[in-house]
Every structure is written in structure tokens, then in C-alpha cells.
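User: My instructor asked us to take a sequence, write out its structure as C-alpha cells, and then describe one feature of it. I'm not sure where to start. Here is the sequence I was given:
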Amino acid sequence: MKAVAYVYKSLARVSLTGMVNEGWRPGRRRLFAAGFVIMLIVGTACNQEPTGVKGEVYKAIKLMSVTNESQTAQMDQSFDYIKPLPNAEALKYLCEWLSAKKATERRSAVYIINTLNWDDPSPAFAPLRALLTHKEDTTRGMAALALGAIRDAGAYDTLVRLLADDPSAYTRRCVAFALGDMMNTDALVPLKAAKEKSVDPLVSGNIDNAVDRLTFLIENEAAEAKAKAVVEGIWIIAGTAPQQKERIERAMKCINSADEATRKQVYANAIESPSQFVRNSVMFAALKNGETITVDEKDQKYFEIIRNIVGE
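Assistant: Let's start with the prediction itself. The C-alpha cells for your sequence are:
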């Protein structure tokens, strides 16, 4: 896989039907890391739809569970059912779907929890942790990604064990990415140990991304206040695909909480990172804000690709 052709290697590709994409396909541009592929099959309808908040969550799940990745309008509509709802109540009803027997509905709930922002995600911790032992590797992997996204520190030990022992390469690569998403730099030890044993290139790719992101946090642990927020924004982008609007918005909110001078100072340091993930993220953030940034010749091809994507 040539880096010139694609900005990043494929990392945690999520398929709600269990059809795991084993790599990049020509014409599909993924910028940063985990690109979520939603390929769903039709589910059956209940005899009577619920109403109120529970009813809106029901609509979101039912629509998402019959949506494929090319149907972006339907995906957005599923999220739009949830976003205006009282945050805690919406999460409560989404959690009920985590025990759904139908795989596409269960995965849809996991995916929505993973994707949207929650004031207090803790009600989802226990039911998502329970899915880490599910017989289906797609569900285990997706649950790991969601737990990483909502930063459930209590799931850390189980995720480390799954990274070492789960028989599914799909689950292991999702777990590797999730550990990079938790901001726990202790994960560098098990991640590096897993990399030494890994024979699957996609698992190795996710480990590389997680290691780079966590190392970036360590390199900038002395950052304070506004600079620390810019570092976090860059760290988020380094684990994000451009179509993940919620994550991009969250990252840019962190970055833009700092003044321009602070942003440029952090950019100047981060653009010298040995990690391509980090350097690409800096370029994305600067271009997203319409800010100028000087890049090395080795990064010029990436800069042009990222500029085209940001301009779309």
C-alpha cells in the first residue's frame, strides 16, 4: 500500500454487518484513522412504535440498521433523531438497544454511542463492557471502539487482555485503536508488546497509530492551559476520518479555544513530529482554520491531498 496514493493506512474499519473491509479501495479517501464502514441489512419492524424520546431513539436505530455507507443523508438523519433529545435520556434508551438480539440493531446502537457526544457517558460503560465477551467479533470490536471513544478507564484491563488474546484480528485491531483513544499512556507497554507479535498488517497499523498518538501526548505533557487544548485537538484528529463530523468538531473546538499565537506555537512543534499521523493532523487543523503553515518537502504531497479534502 503506497502512502503516496493514500494519506493513511486503513485502521479500524467498522462494519455493522460484520463484513470487514480488509484495506483501502481506489477512490475512497480516508484521512486519519478509524474509518467507520456501515453496511447494514434490513431489520424487521415492531408492531407498535414507541413515542417520545424512546420513540426518536427507536427511529434512529431502525433507520441506521438499514443504512449503508453510501447513504450519508440517512446516516445524518439517524444522528439528527438523537441530537436534539435530552442527552442523558437518549443515552439511556440507546443502551437498551445494546442487548438487542438482531445484530444490525445492536451494532447501530454501539455506533451511535461511539459517534455522538455525551455529557455523562458512564451509563453506557457496563453494557458496552458486557459486549466485550460477545460471541461475535464484530460486536466485540465495535464495543471496544465505543469504550475507547467514551474513555471508560474501567475497561482498560479487559481491552489489554483482548489485545493480547482475542482470536479475532478484527477485534484486536479495534482494541488497539481504542487504547489509543483512551489517553492512557500506560497502554504503550501492551501496545508495543502486541506489535512484536502481530502478523496482521491492519492490527499492526492500528497499533502504530495508537502508539504515535499516545507518544505525542507524552511529548507534550508539559503543555499548559490553552496549549494543552490544542495538543488534545491534534491528538483527536490523528484518530479521525474526515467524514466523522462530531469528532472533527470536537477537535476543532479544543484547538480554537486557544488564541492564534498559541495555536501556531503548538503547530510549529507538532509539525516536526516523527509521526506522519501527527503531522497530517497539524496540516488538517491549520487548513481547516485557514491558517498558513510551513511544511517540509517530504510532506508536500500529503499537504496537497489534505488541502483538497478540506476544500471539498
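For the description part of your assignment, you could build on this observation: The longest strand covers residues 14-15. Try explaining in your own words what that tells you about the chain.
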